[in-house]
Amino acid sequence: MLHAIFPGRELRTAHQIQGGLSNTIYRVVIGGHSGPDEALAVRVYTRDPTGYTLDCDVASRLKGIVPVPQVLHVDETRSHCEHPFAVLSWLDGDLLDDVATHEPRTDFLGALSACGHMLARLQQVTFPQPGFFGPGLIVTHPLPSGKHAYMDWMRETLANPLAVDRLGATLWLIGPDGRHPA
């Protein structure tokens, strides 16, 4: 599928990235021409065939605010693959979960600090209301407003069997009194 997008380049390596919940993600390295090998991410949209539109919208909105991969190609035709896919530039880095379990505590604290800086930069991106995006980053499914309504929604969401399966059986929710409900 990459030969049609990058003629004259050849696939050097490809492996599936663990952790993709909605898509299948591969890290591929292509080479050829006279330049160096290039790492790319290939996201195959197996669950939501239009998911690439959200990825493209988010990448466009966050460009220059936080590091985001560049969208190099989108193929929704399914002529090269059973599902729509996107080819993105590869951003080097480590998953926070990997840093937490494999690195010394000082490295983990540094990673948390870096996450905090990125989250602070993301605060400049605002939307008229909280919720789930539709096309064009328009909030189409708003979240309930108000402190108690949101916490009720969160409890209901985290009790969903899919959330329990993905997050683990022990979900740490803080009650209205600031304590974990035992």
Structure description:
The chain starts with a helix and ends in a 15-residue tail after the last helix. It is built from six helices and seven strands; from the N terminus they run H-E-E-E-H-E-E-H-H-E-E-H-H. The chain is an alpha+beta fold and 182 residues long. The model has no long low-confidence stretch (mean pLDDT 84). The longest helix has 18 residues, at 105-122. The strands form two sheets. It has a five-stranded antiparallel beta sheet with strand order 1-2-3-5-4. The chain has helices at 2-5, 51-62, 96-102, 105-122, 147-159, 161-167; strands at 9-17, 24-32, 38-44, 71-75, 85-89, 131-133, 139-142. Helix content is 34%, strand content 23%. The protein is globular and about 60 Å long.
Give descriptors for this structure.
five-stranded antiparallel β-sheet, 7 strands, alpha+beta
Ordered list of secondary-structure elements with their pairings:
Blueprint: H1 2-5, E1 9-17, E2 24-32, E3 38-44, H2 51-62, E4 71-75, E5 85-89, H3 96-102, H4 105-122, E6 131-133, E7 139-142, H5 147-159, H6 161-167
Antiparallel strand pairs: 1-2, 2-3, 3-5, 4-5, 6-7
Total helical elements: 6
Share of helix, binned = 25-40%
Class from helix and strand fractions:
alpha+beta
List the secondary-structure elements in sequence, H or E: HEEEHEEHHEEHH
Largest sheet at a glance? Answer: 5 strands, antiparallel
- What is the rounded distance between the termini? 52 Å
Mean pLDDT: 84
Uncertain segments are none
C-alpha-based Rg, rounded: 20 Å
Shape: globular
Say how many strands there are: 7
Physical arrangement of strands within the biggest beta sheet:
1-2-3-5-4
Strand content: 15-25%
